[in-house]
Design brief:
Rossmann fold, OB fold (Dihydrolipoamide Acetyltransferase, E2P), 9 helices
C-alpha cells in the first residue's frame, strides 16, 4: 500500500528584497529561484518562512525585518497580514500610488509597446474608510460555534477573524463584530453565505444572501438591527431578481433610496444595492472631472460612452456635449441610466443595451457618427471595440481602466492598427492599500 509523503517546506531563509511585484509582494532570489515575499519591501533585509513552493517560484512571509526600508510604515489595521483584503498597508499611500504608476508605465511599455507623451499627475483621495461597495463573506465555524464576517485570509479560502475593517465605510467597517453577532443569533446562521454592502451619500444598505427560509424571529432581528443602526436591510434568496427590501417597510421614499451626488455637474445619481458603482466616491468625482478635461466635450460634439453603466460618465458629459450615446451590456443598468437621465432633466443622451464583445457593426447606434469616444470596460478590457471602432473614427478617445495589462494591450492595438497617438496616461488611487490599479489614458487621431 502506497503512502502519500508530506513535502517538507524549506527552513526559514534570510534574503535581501530586490523589488516589488505588481501585487505588492517583495521579490528576491534564493539559489536562483524567484521568491515572492508577503509584507516585504525593496532593499529590506528580512527573514522569511516559506508558505508555498512551486516549480517556477516560491512564496514566503516575513518573520523578521532585520534592515527595514525607510518607506516602511506601521499598518493601521490589526488584521493586516492575515486578512487578504489589503496587501500594501506597510507602505505609505504616497509610495503606493507611485508604485502603481510605475506598474502602469511598465505595462504600457512591455505589453502595449507604447509610451505616453505625458504622465498625468496621480489622483488620490481618502486612504481610510473609503470603500462604499463590498461583498463580505459569512461563515459559521462549527467547532468554535461562532460566526465570522469579512474577507478571506490571504491565499486561503477561509474567512479572516476580524472585528473591524479600516478601509470599509465606517457605517459598516466599525460594525463587523456586531454583524457577526447578529447572524450568530439567527436560526439559519449556517445558511447566510454573504452580505453585500452598498453605501450612498445619505443611506447605507446591506443585502443578506440566505440559502434557507428565515423565521419570523430572524426577520424581526434583522429589522431591529436596521432600525437601530439606520441601515436599509435587503434579503436575497436567489439570483439578482430575488432582492427585496425588508426594512424600512412601506413605499419607496427618500430614506429607502441609495444615491450619490456629482455637484460639479449638477447631477444626482440613484442606484440599487446590487448595481455596479465606483467604490470610492471622492475618487469617482475626481475621475469624472479628469475624464471631462481630457475628452474636452463641446456643444457640437457627439460622444459615444461604451460600458456606460448607470450613466456615471454619460450624464456629466451630456451637460457639456451636444449629444451622448451610452451603451452597456447590463440591461438593468441601462434602465437605471435612463431613469437617472429623466430624473436630472437631461434629454440629449440615449442609452442602449448591447453585447460589446459581439457583432458591433450590427448595432443600430454604431453608424450614428461620433467624434469622441469614452471607454470604461471591465478587467477583460475592450478587445472587440478597439478592433471595430465606429467610422469615421473618433478624433479623441479617453480610456478608463481597472486593469493596466488589458489597457496596455488595447492601447497597443489602437496605436499600431488604428493610427492613434497615446498622448497621456496616469493612475488613480481608487483602492488604497491594495494592488488594484485604476488608470486613464488619452489617445488622439488627426
Amino acid at each position: 500500500m502506497s503512502r502519500r509523503r508530506n513535502k517538507k517546506r524549506p527552513e526559514p531563509r534570510q534574503a535581501v528584497i530586490e523589488s516589488l511585484s505588481h501585487d505588492g509582494r517583495g521579490i528576491c532570489h534564493v539559489a536562483g529561484k524567484v521568491v515572492f515575499v508577503h509584507r516585504a519591501l525593496p532593499e529590506e533585509e528580512v527573514v522569511f518562512r516559506y508558505c508555498r513552493t512551486r516549480s517556477k517560484f516560491d512564496e514566503g512571509d516575513v518573520v523578521e525585518v532585520i534592515k527595514p526600508s525607510p518607506l516602511r510604515i506601521e499598518p493601521r489595521c490589526a488584521h493586516f497580514g492575515v486578512c487578504g483584503g489589503c496587501s500594501l498597508q506597510h507602505l505609505s499611500p504616497e509610495q503606493q500610488i507611485l508604485h502603481k504608476q510605475q506598474r502602469l508605465l511598465d505595462n504600457l511599455k512591455n505589453i502595449g509597446h507604447v509610451q505616453p507623451q505625458t504622465v498625468l499627475p496621480p489622483l488620490t483621495g481618502p486612504a481610510w474608510g473609503y470603500r462604499r461597495k463590498a461583498r463580505l463573506g459569512v461563515a459559521f465555524m462549527r467547532r468554535e460555534q461562532v460566526v465570522r464576517v469579512g474577507f478571506r485570509e490571504r491565499s486561503s479560502s477561509f474567512l479572516a477573524d476580524i472585528k473591524r475593517c479600516e478601509v470599509l465605510h465606517p457605517s459598516v467597517g466599525e460594525r463587523i463584530g456586531e454583524l457577526a453577532a447578529l447572524i450568530g443569533a439567527l436560526s439559519i446562521r449556517d445558511k447566510i453565505p454573504q452580505i453585500e454592502v452598498a453605501v450612498g451619500d445619505d443611506n447605507v444598505a446591506l443585502v443578506f444572501r440566505h440559502l434557507a427560509e428565515l423565521s419570523e424571529a430572524d426577520l424581526e432581528r434583522l429589522r431591529a438591527f436596521g432600525q437601530e443602526h439606520q441601515l436599509i436591510i435587503f434579503l436575497q434568496s436567489g439570483g439578482p431578481k430575488t432582492v427585496s427590501r425588508l426594512w424600512p417597510e412601506g413605499e419607496e421614499s427618500a430614506n429607502t433610496q441609495l444615491g450619490y451626488r456629482l455637484p460639479a455637474h449638477d447631477v444626482d445619481m440613484q442606484f440599487r444595492p446590487t448595481d455596479f458603482t465606483q467604490v470610492n466616491a471622492e475618487l469617482n468625482r475626481q475621475m469624472i472631472a479628469r475624464t471631462i478635461e481630457l475628452l474636452d466635450p463641446q456643444p457640437e460634439d457627439r460622444v459615444l460612452d461604451l460600458f456606460c453603466g448607470l450613466g456615471n460618465f454619460s450624464l456629466p458629459l451630456a451637460r457639456r456635449a451636444g449629444a451622448v450615446v451610452g451603451v452597456e451590456g447590463d440591461a438593468g443598468l441601462v434602465a437605471r441610466a435612463r431613469e437617472n437621465a429623466q430624473r436630472n432633466g437631461i434629454d440629449n443622451v440615449a442609452f442602449h443595451a448591447a453585447d460589446l464583445n459581439g457583432d458591433l457593426p450590427a448595432e443600430p447606434w454604431y453608424r450614428e457618427g461620433f467624434n469622441k469616444l469614452l471607454l470604461d470596460p471591465p478587467r477583460s478590457g475592450a478587445p472587440m471595440v478597439v478592433k471595430n471602432l465606429p467610422k469615421p473614427h473618433a478624433s479623441r478617445i479617453v480610456y478608463v481602466s481597472c486593469d493596466p495589462a488589458t489597457l496596455a494591450r488595447d492601447i497597443g492595438t489602437l496605436v499600431d492598427q488604428q493610427g492613434y497617438t497615446l498622448v497621456s496616461a496616469g493612475v488613480m488611487d481608487m483602492f488604497p492599500h491594495t494592488g488594484h490599479v485604476e488608470s486613464i489614458a488619452l489617445l488622439t487621431k488627426s
